[in-house]
From TrEMBL:
Domain (Glycosyl hydrolase 94 supersandwich) ranges: 11-280
Residue ranges of every copy of the Glycosyl hydrolase 94 catalytic domain listed in the record: 307-734
UniProt cross-references to Pfam families, sorted A to Z: GH94_b-supersand, Glyco_hydro_94
Keywords tagged on the record: Glycosyltransferase, Transferase
Domain of life: Bacteria
Record organism: Butyrivibrio fibrisolvens DSM 3071
Record SMART domains: CBM_X
GO biological process: carbohydrate metabolic process
Protein name listed in UniProt: Cellobiose phosphorylase
GO molecular-function term, one example from the UniProt record: glycosyltransferase activity
Lineage: Bacteria, Bacillati, Bacillota, Clostridia, Lachnospirales
Length: 811
């Protein structure tokens, strides 16, 4: 069942009913100011940091779901409605939401009044623009009353929802004309405030939530809107809001437009002034002056649209498969931008409070983002590396505003160090900029301990070398990629208290998954050593990689698949010897994509086992059989009900690993089959089952053991976005950036046909045509570059070229 449709020409998803299975959201903003907005106008805004600089308030885990947003109420006689349906939920004669790239549009029609709302964050400005156009389509004059509504958050979103004894006395606002200023904490911080303004004179306002709603009402039935008149309340403490009232007369056929701007203003911290409670409004007036007219708004919107057109042109495919083209050219890359900006911090499943930027997460996000804006990728790598410790381990998360590691979460996730090599390697392969390796980067943000980034990568590599267990496999620490596989948490004897052992004390657990990572990214580290002319270090690295390769074959193979790990007792996890959890997806995908067992014939067996034991119609499950009882020695993984999350759920994040592994083996049919099962464009028709947005990837889908098999959760902010784009763009379509140039090596399904691909790489525009006259799944028989035949399948890089024509014949 569909609840909308794709409009590929407009690059929009069109939602045709407000009653979607879950709120279907969009992200606005690309730099510092961000908003989340749902298909019914729910959501919130923040600047830089969703925890520390939250501008508007949102209520998670509330009834009804998706509670609080930026609303417009229209009062037409006794009828009150919203263009986005919520919060009044008045039945509309027409409804439409169009989520586009960095903007959303809403259309509501009721009783001959049509309201169209365009909401977006302009480029390089700290504000959100919402333009509402109201039109009278009847033959009678309409006397309407239009009310805006936002509720201010008191900046620190965590403190805002807990520290009521203080916060209910701190709210401060100031109203000047049509501008409502939120200056809570300004006397304390003296450097920032927010404003909500409209580009016309108002007929009233309210800034007290109680005055606007009434003491016992929700935002579905505000007293002020019901009565049709604002109270001009000025909040002092309690819960400040921003409400404008506009009395609108529309003659038959007449349309009027109003521009609302929600802005964040930050003064120079060194700017001191005498009156601490008097906000400096000059910057606010300058911002509001930029968006006073429809012409100004249209121009800003055009700049945003052009920005995305230029950005997406860097990788663009034209094939006979419209779903592939749709996802590759628009939605997958768009989601990669969002995950780069947000990491895992702020979504409808992440509150923006608990998690900041993830070390592992952000490194993986780079894989799908680095081709879009390399300079931002470079800066992110430096930020991430700055949270690393001198021994090569790292804070698992850091806050985007302060760039400081999250001490509450700490470190000990032993896959983290290798992801830094992965992200840095991806950046250098994309850009050729090896100067980043000489960039001085601190440990733990202590500038006195700054060292070249290359040294950080060596510490990452050596951390694994120096932290191995009895099988010469990497120690897992607190966990590896699977945060819930806590193998060093156990009770040694019945009746003893629960204990947690660190990576170097007590019994130690080992990870075959990290071993697979080490083989892949250890070789990429060695290649960077070659690039820097350090032959001795490259030789050392490859020797260590070979030792790990051998250790996996010796103690990481279970006969038909790779085992997952050894627990703290050196018992196998993910083995046929186990009663539950006999096979896990992670080592199958990553060991094979790293090349382990390919020449020995083991990789093919592992892939066959995945298909036989883990595959479902909705994707590949993370493990089987599901855990039906709690295993203290395994930690959180067995605490979930069977079929959900890490306990046999379908983790979309690591499905691409198996798809890539199949391309390594040359099986294009199977690689593409796996790709399609989690790809939004291919499962749009089952939205009533899948529930999450049909235009972006979800983190997980309920597995076959779950009651709601096939139901998605945790959409948008997931490594699935970057890894799936890596899978389809670099392995299936086969345009892979190497240190020496673009490698063309597609692995496509039977009947995929010819395709054309434009790829911008290191400032050169490549126009690639791939023909497949023999309908093979993998293999390149010939390649010409600007009409000249070249050996192999790597395009020699020529920095002096501007446009290069490449013809590839598979065979």
């Amino acid at each position: 069942m569909k609840f909308g449709h794709f409009d590929d020409d407009a690059r929009e998803y069109v939602i045709t009913t407000p009653k979607t299975p879950l709120p279907w959201i969009n992200y606005l903003g690309n730099q510092e100011f961000f908003s989340l907005i749902s298909n019914t106008c729910g959501g919130y805004s923040f600047c830089k940091d969703a925890k520390l600089l939250r501008i508007t308030r949102y209520r998670y885990n509330n009834i009804p779901y998706d509670n609080n947003g930026k609303y417009f109420y229209i009062k037409d006689g006794n009828t009150i409605w919203n263009p986005g349906w919520q919060p009044t939920k008045t039945a509309l004669d027409e409804y439409e939401c169009r989520h586009g790239l960095g903007y959303s549009k809403f259309k509501g029609v009721k009783n001959g009044v049509e309201a169209n709302v365009l909401t977006f964050v302009p480029m390089n400005d700290r504000c959100e623009i919402s333009r509402i156009k109201v039109k009278n389509t009847t033959s009678l004059t309409k006397e309407l009353k239009l009310f805006s509504y936002v509720e201010w958050c008191l900046w620190n979103a965590d403190d805002d929802e807990r520290n009521f004894q203080r916060n209910l006395s701190t709210g401060e606002v100031e109203v000047i004309g049509s501008s409502i200023f939120h200056k809570t904490e300004y006397r304390e911080r003296r450097n920032h405030f927010a404003v909500y303004s409209v580009n016309t004179e108002v007929d009233g306002f309210d800034t007290s939530r109680e005055s606007f709603l009434g003491p016992y009402n929700g935002n579905d039935t505000p007293d002020v809107v019901t009565e049709g008149k604002c109270t001009n309340s000025v909040a002092s403490g309690w819960s400040p809001v921003a409400v404008h009232q506009l009395n609108v007369t529309l003659e038959p056929g007449e349309e009027k437009s109003f521009v609302f701007v929600l802005g964040y203003i930050e003064n120079d911290e060194n700017d001191k002034w005498e009156a601490p409670n008097v906000i400096k409004k000059d910057l606010a007036w300058e911002m509001l002056d930029r968006y006073k007219t429809d012409e100004q708004v249209d121009k800003a919107f055009a700049v945003l649209c052009d920005y995305w057109t230029n950005l997406l042109s860097k990788y663009h495919v034209k094939s006979s498969n419209d779903k592939v083209d749709r996802m590759v050219n628009i939605w997958n890359q768009y989601q990669c931008m969002v995950t780069f900006n947000m990491s895992r911090s702020a979504s409808y499943y992440e509150s923006g409070i608990g998690r900041g930027m993830g070390f592992r997460d952000s490194c993986q996000d780079l894989l799908g983002f680095v081709h879009l804006i390399p300079d931002r990728a470079r800066a992110r790598i430096i930020d991430i590396a700055s949270t690393q410790f001198e021994d090569g381990s790292a804070y698992h998360q850091y806050q985007p505003l302060t760039k400081k590691g999250n001490a509450d979460i700490g470190s000990g996730f032993n896959d983290d160090p290798l992801w830094l090599i992965a992200g840095t390697s991806a950046y250098i392969r994309e850009t050729g900029d090896d100067s980043i390796l000489d960039e001085m980067v601190p440990f733990d943000n202590d500038e006195s301990k700054a060292t070249p980034l290359m040294n950080h990568l060596k510490r990452s590599f050596d951390y694994i070398v120096n932290h191995k267990g009895p099988h010469k496999l990497p120690l897992i620490g607190r966990a590896d990629w699977n945060d819930c596989l806590n193998l060093n948490c156990f009770s040694a004897h019945p009746g003893e208290s629960f204990q947690t052992f660190g990576p170097s004390e007590g019994p130690v657990a080992e990870s075959v998954f990290i071993a697979g990572m080490f083989v892949k990214y250890g070789e990429e580290y060695a290649q960077l050593c070659d690039l820097k002319g350090d032959a001795k270090e490259a030789e050392y690295a490859r020797a260590q990689v070979q030792e790990m390769y051998d250790a996996v074959l010796k103690d990481g193979w279970d006969g038909e698949w790779f085992i997952r790990a050894y627990d703290a007792y050196s018992h196998k996890v993910g083995s046929k010897e186990c009663e539950e959890g006999q096979i896990f997806i992670e080592p199958q995908g990553f060991c094979v994509l790293a090349g382990i067992g390919v020449k020995e014939g083991l990789a093919q067996k592992a892939m066959e086992s995945v298909k036989e034991k883990l595959d479902t119609k909705y994707g590949i499950m993370i493990l089987q059989p599901a855990y039906t009882k709690y295993h203290l020695e395994l930690g959180e993984v067995s605490s979930y009900p069977p079929g959900y999350k890490e306990n046999a759920g379908i983790f979309c994040h690591n499905n691409p690993w198996v798809s890539i592994a199949e391309t390594v083996l040359g099986d294009g049919d199977r690689a593409f089959e796996i790709y399609k099962k989690t790809c939004p464009a291919y499962i749009e028709d089952i939205s009533e089952i899948h529930c999450t947005e049909p235009y972006v990837y979800s983190q997980m889908v309920a597995g076959k053991d779950a009651k709601f098999f096939g139901q998605g959760k945790n959409s948008w902010l997931t490594g699935t976005a970057a890894w799936t784009f890596t899978d389809i763009s670099q392995y299936i379509l086969g345009v892979y950036p190497t240190l020496n140039g673009l490698q063309i090596n597609p692995c496509v399904p039977d009947g995929f046909g010819d395709f054309d691909l434009d790829r911008t790489y290191r400032g050169v525009n490549y126009h690639i045509h791939v023909s497949n006259p023999s309908n093979v799944q993998k293999g390149v028989s010939s390649m010409t570059v600007d009409g000249k035949a070249v050996e192999g399948n790597v395009i020699p890089f020529d920095s002096s070229a501007k446009d290069v024509t490449v013809n590839v014949v598979m065979g």
